[in-house]
Amino acid sequence: MKGLNIVIVEEPCLSRNVLLKALRVWGYDCVVAESEAQAWAAVKGCGEPRLVLADWHADFLECDEFIERLRANPAFQGTFILGGVPRGAVGAIRRCVTAGADDCISRPYDLDEVRLRLRNASLVMGLTPDGPVFPEE
Predict the structure, then answer these.
(1) What would the pLDDT profile of 36-61 be if each residue is shown by its tens digit?
(2) Which candidate, 116, 101, 80, 86, places its Cα nearest to that of 1?
């Protein structure tokens, strides 16, 4: 959906590159942050509506702390937070949501799941998604 600004907080990896390419093809504006300082700068510089996809196990960031700080800051109350959790990681979804994430998505990313989560996030944020979830390609 055009208009939704996405901040991806994740280390360089193949799955992130595939995700980023797909998001751009789908018409999303994306910024990538590869350090905690970049993450905060990206979130602060990103316009609304804003979605942050934070890798739960990024080596450079304590994700639960990052999410808690986002939630505590009134300037980011409208931000939708999506935690990227490793598939099968015991307790990761619970910790992520407890920290304040609105939703979680399994990594490595399944692009159909990404499309569905982004559409649902848009609806929660009061946006009107363009067209079907899975347009014919």
Answers:
(1) 999 999 999 998 999 999 998 787 78
(2) 116
Fold of the domain built from segment(s) 5-124: Rossmann fold (3.40.50)
State the Rg of the chain over Cα: 14
Q: Which residues of 52-74 are buried (b: 16+ CB within 10 A; e: fewer)?
A: bbbbbebeebebbebbeebbeee
Per the model's pLDDT, the better-predicted residue between 62 and 22 turns out to be: 22
* CA gap 15, 63 in Å, rounded: 19
Alpha helical stretches, state H, 1-137:
14-25, 36-45, 63-72, 92-99, 111-124
